[in-house]
Fold:
Amino acid sequence: MGGVWSNTFGLIKSLMYGPHMLKPDGEHPPVFRTNNGVPVVVLLNRDTMQYVFNPETYEKEPFCFGYLGMSKDAMRGHCPSMFTNGEDHRRKKALLIDAYKHGQKALPSVLFKQIKAHFGEWSRLDEVPDFEDRVFHFFSETLTEALFGRKVDGQLCLTWLNGLMTDFKTWIPMPSLKRKRRLALEALPAIWKAIEEAPKYQELVQLCHTHGVEVEEGIFTILCGTIFNGIAAETAAIVSSVACLHTISDAEKNDIIQTTLQVLEKHGGVSEESVGEMKTLESFLLEVLRLHPPVFSFWGLARKDFVISPEKENIQVRKGEQLLGNCFWAQRDGSVFPDPDRFRWNRFVGEDEQGGQKKHLFFLRGSWTEAYDFDNHQCPGQDISFFMMKATLAVLLCYCSWKLKDAPVWSDKPIRLGNPDDPVRLKRFNFRSEQAGRALGIRPDNTSPNSI
Ligand code: HEM
Structure:
């Protein structure tokens, strides 16, 4: 019974205080034991976090992040790659990487078309109270069209996403989660039909065969990797970016705009090349993801017995114990990031690509400067997501203006995925469609002269 109560109090504290529960008095050792809904060994800095990056020291628990489980029904029983290990994980990750490579070819032209359509729609509204959902719809329709050859309705995907992680390990009744799960199950047949009828479905079926993954399992792997891992994180990052732009001065914002415009002029518009060169904008985005990562918690079960920090904290971990790496605190480590709590948009400008502070950015579940591989669970969507997020931000900054309804305030609730406490709403949104169209290479009739 004691365990049940510690789990319950831990869960309540974790949901109320988020990462601050792990440093209640401002400080804590880099590794210690606590209960945040389940008993965990918490890892808080760059050295101790390695235990949830190195596949020799952790393994994933099927369908589960510590105290929070995934609805198996919403996945028709198929375990997504992020919860699998060994050969099963390797096959699924290889499939995902191949599917993303195929999708990447179509991505620029699909993205540019969707920017014009969605931003144009936002600008025709008096207010945009549901801005966060609309950003999700925009990314979701872009990425599903690039991958499947036809977009899947963004609201259907959001309904499905909202019902995925709804299985809390607690006796406290949570009726609203039951409802979300039911809605997700209702949305699934329409999503499935849209994918099966999409032009690239047979191509993806072939990829499943190539990687030895059964077709339904493979399509769920791609769907979950894209909607849950990808679009949810990208949406959170852009919403946080819009909120952070509110916190810097006009002169600072203007600096980012001018350097981005210079790159656009040099290259004649938005393209993979010009986006790659937008280093000031990239620094801004990395700083957003440093202070407001969409995923705070990296879970894993100890694969064997080992000792962490034997000379200091000397924590003896037993095989099967729950590990919890916390990226929120690791990216606020003052020994790595000078003035760690301050938002400095130009922090990474001029930094060596392989070294400096960038090496200690962990928001993709591994160092920003190291590539993912088939054995670890590091994000394989880095190239896709940075192209999409930087191109979107470039258009927002250079060809749009908006007014927030409320000033953003962060108390870092995990449920808000790094976003400010209250949903970001816009009082108005203006879009200079013709200018943006020229930068995106889209004619006023919405055709693209240079299919990229
Ligand atoms: C701001 C953008 C993004 C962030 C911060 C991010 C972060 C992460 C993190 C932290 C994980 C590890 C999850 C875990 O194991 O606990 C992950 C995994 C993953 N991400 Fe991303 N991600 C982003 C964008 C994307 C995009 C755009 C895609 C798809 C195109 C994507 C696809 C995936 C997939 C498939 C996995 C599972 C990898 C595996 O099973 O080994 N991510 N991501």
User: Anything to note?
Assistant: Residues 2-440 form a domain with the Cytochrome p450 fold (CATH 1.10.630.10). Residues 81-82, 93, 96, 100, 225-226, 229-230, 233-234, 237, 294-295, 298, 363-365, 377, 379-381, 384-385 surround protoporphyrin IX containing FE (CB under 6 Å). The CA atoms of residues 2 and 413 lie 26 Å apart.
